[in-house]
UniProtKB/TrEMBL annotation:
GO BP terms: thiamine transport
This protein's name: Iron ABC transporter substrate-binding protein
GO annotation, cellular component aspect: outer membrane-bounded periplasmic space
UniProtKB keywords: Signal
Pfam families: SBP_bac_6 (PF13343)
Keyword Transcription part of the UniProt annotation: no
One Gene Ontology MF term: thiamine binding
SUPFAM superfamilies xref list: Periplasmic binding protein-like II
Organism of origin: Pararhodobacter aggregans
Signal peptide bounds: 1-24
Length: 367
């Protein structure tokens, strides 16, 4: 994980409050409400994902009166929604206040009545296409699908999805999640389908499932959830995951073993994640305060320090508040030039097809 520390939110929030007395009253009430609640419960936020360790530390430093209760850091997006369903009538520590899920899961949660609307103070700087008009969910960051390769064990680095089918990669390729529940893995299937020329959505899902069926039949696919540890140990020396997770893992490993991060040449799929507040949040004020922090300059730059492109990136860049060292640490801009941002309908169609078809088409129980 990058260790760059950014401390700008105190000033930016202070300026925001002084410039808008009505907002100051709202923020003051929000802070006091959160103080009375005393806790924020998060879920599925591993500290090495998108710089979340430092983001959580920054929030804790700003609001030391709040206990941060972190549930199941390795949960997938589907698990997060299930946690809300399972705790609708539970105000105890197992009920999440907030969720961070793949784009397709935001509208699904909204349709089911699992999340409640809230518009942060920086709402107008979130692109319209990346937010629900009523504030039920809103984009937070994005990255592109990549490969991270343990070069101690892999001599020839694959540069495309099609390369992964080569016999030299037997027992080496894994996903960073269960494609029946993990947004990251579900979209990796779509990227594989796009690499074969299929349009994003149901077509790419089918083509991607067929790709992974071939990968599994060839013996190249390893049916475990790949992590930095399995990459380093050699259980999964080639891991398909978001670029920000791969780059963070590269920093964590610090050359032991050496790794290389590759954006595949045959499909550059960009994936947006979204934030939302549970409609059954035991700590609604703390949840809103958390959102205000995440969408402040500090929260956004905290994600950028973890190699994620924050949703307010264009606004931050236009105002010149992004430190140069952060810009220099990102992959070259040309790596993202061909990035495809699928529509919400395409993401939903892909999710449904992958979740429904993985067992029957691929037949690999990833766990």
């Amino acid at each position: 994980m990058k260790t760059t520390t950014v401390r700008v939110a105190s000033a930016s929030i202070a300026a925001m409050l002084s410039a808008a007395p009505a907002l100051a009253q709202d923020m003051a009430a929000l802070v006091e409400g959160a103080r009375a609640e005393g806790m924020l419960t998060t879920i599925a936020l591993p500290h090495d994902w998108c710089g979340y360790g430092d983001v959580i530390a920054g929030f804790r430093e700003m609001y030391p009166f709040l206990e941060i209760n972190e549930l199941n850091p390795d949960a997938g997006s589907a698990d997060e929604l299930e946690a809300i369903r399972a705790n609708m009538n539970n105000t105890g520590p197992q009920a999440p206040d907030v969720i961070d899920v793949g784009l397709a899961f935001g509208p699904a949660a909204q349709a089911e009545g699992l999340i409640t609307p809230y518009m942060v103070s920086t709402w107008d700087t979130i692109p319209e296409g990346a937010r629900d008009a009523e504030g039920h969910w809103y984009g937070d960051y994005y990255g592109v699908m990549s490969f991270i390769v343990n070069t101690d064990l892999v001599d020839n680095i694959p540069t495309s999805f099609e390369d992964l089918l080569k016999p030299e990669y037997v027992g080496q390729v894994a996903l960073a999640g269960d494609p029946r529940a993990s947004n990251q893995a579900i979209l990796a299937v779509m990227a594989a389908g796009m690499a074969r020329g299929a349009e994003p959505g149901a077509a790419a899902a089918q083509a991607g499932l067929e790709f992974f069926a071939e990968l599994n039949a060839s013996g190249n696919f390893v049916p475990v959830i790949g992590r930095t540890g399995t990459l380093a140990q050699g259980t999964t020396p080639i891991l398909i995951q978001w670029d920000y997770n791969a780059l963070s893992a590269r920093d964590t490993l610090a050359g032991n073993p050496p790794v290389e991060v590759v954006v595949p040449s045959d499909a550059v799929l960009a994936g947006v994640y979204v934030q939302a507040i549970s409609a059954y949040a035991p700590h609604p004020n703390a949840a809103r305060l958390w959102m205000e922090y995440l969408y402040s300059d500090e929260g956004q730059l905290g994600w950028l320090a973890g190699y994620c492109h924050p949703i307010r990136f264009n606004d931050l860049a236009a105002r010149g508040v992004i430190p140069q060292d952060m810009m220099d640490a990102l992959p070259p801009a040309e790596s993202y030039a061909a990035a495809v941002f699928p529509t919400l309908d395409q993401v939903n169609a892909n999710r449904d097809a992958v979740v429904a078809g993985w067992d029957s088409v691929v037949g690999a129980n990833v766990e």
